[in-house]
Amino acid sequence: MFRVHWLKNYRRTLKVIPRQVFTYMSTPFGSQHSSTVHSTPSPAIDADDSSEEEEDSYTLEEAIHVWYEKKSRATRFSYNQYVKHFQSWLHANYGRDINHQLKLKHVRLYLSHKSKTTTQMRPVISVLKSLFKHLKKLNVIKRDILLTFDNVKQKQPRHERTMSVATVKSMFKEALKKSTPISFHILQLLVYAGLRRTVLSKLLRSDIVRTEFSKHGESEFRYSVKARDAKGGKNRTIGIKTDVGRSLYDYAASLTTEYLFPGKDDGHLGSSAVANRIKTLAKKIGKPEISCHWGRHFFASNALHAGANLVDVSKVLGHSSVQVTSLYLHSSDKPVSALIDLSTLVNGETVDDSIIYVKTEKIKTEKIKNKIKSKIKVSKKGKFGKKSNQQSV
Asked: φ, ψ for residue 135 (rounded to 5)?
């Protein structure tokens, strides 16, 4: 009985002893310190849990830094201006930053203050909505107070961004009068590629690409432009009209600098400098309202008026959807009806039955109607004749 009782107690102690201590007991005496036998390290699961919690928690500055991660430098700069202005207004008026205590009324009061100095409020609201959505996703704030906040409609621009072909030709003539061809080639890329000025300003010489191909046994070249780090961090390749591409390629080959439009200290020409060059050309022809962005509108509208596909134009411009591209389109003086063609080639001649009305069918129907009318008249005469005979009797 004593032996059975001792075995039961021994089995109970085995269940209580940690596994790590039990393994140490099986090793020879003196191969480990006594302290290691009696002390057990903390489980690795607890350490992993604490590290995951630290990774999932963000400060406000860290969250904003992640928000900027996939945006271009120009976008980061403009977004940062909006956010910093909002933060400074909160500190000045309420002594707080963006946190859980922020309410919708604070944003409304800020927008009311901002509207006194800003004509276009849509970009401000869009930036704040994007920021609050991102902060809620990273648990920096408990709820997105701008989730149901509506965007205001974009106000119509002061001038419609449409240029005639004559206007563009006048700008090219003024660009030819410059001492350097920089303004001329900038205008080429705006009109024939629809590039934004920020992308255009930092183009490299190697971004003007010439590709050789064979056509009917003869070698020919096609040209394209690489748009790097465009809006949204996207890269795309834009095909260029052959004559314009050759002009840009020869210009790039003549340079010894890294950038296509070099600036000071071995850098590239700034986007503001590009805008000033176009403004100078616009003022020379008496159109001071024209800016670089007008080139994108001209490119999109004229390409579609010439028969380009809307999807292709949207892809070249780097838009996220064709709905954005539709905002760049302007009506032309040509009637849309002129683009409809129902003609067919018959015996070497184009025939369109929808243009000239041929009266052959109408003549046949009129003959049939006349025959029916004549029969009716004859039958009526016969009836009237019978009636007259009866009366005479």
From this structure: -65, -35
